[in-house]
Amino acid sequence: MSRGAHALAAGPMTVISANFGASTVATAATVGVRLPAVVPQLAMVRALTDTVCLVADFPLDAAADIRLAVNEIATVLIREAVAGATLECEFTYSDDRMTVRASTITETEVEFSRHSLGWELVRMLASSARSSTGPFETWAHGYPTVIEFSWERGTSA
Predict the structure, then answer these.
(1) What domains can be seen in the chain, in order of their start residue?
(2) Is it the case that residue 8 has pLDDT exceeding 60?
């Protein structure tokens, strides 16, 4: 596969981008996936998280932290997703940083509550975190919602 964004259909899962093995250490690589926003797909999201952390050569404790944060944001988005929605997850990594962006269409204006245990967990495990909900999209029957966090060596839990 050549470098850059690609879309490959594989049953209910679509790989939206894959750029493993950046040519230089300083270059960021991105891997993304588009899945049905349903609870059974959490296993795929976890597995992809583990694989990206392995390829990025992150320490096991960092991989566990990233996996836990990804699981939390994916679970929130899946629980709030409109019927038939797609969950998109994108992982961008370099030697010392991983940024994860997850999005879907939600039934309500979901803002990851700044006072929830899940939000506090993500904040503790990541160097930065944010969530946003766009205006209602009639064609999608819901609100475009994005949760994103970054993990950096030496600054995260």
Answers:
(1) 5-152 (3.30.565.10)
(2) no
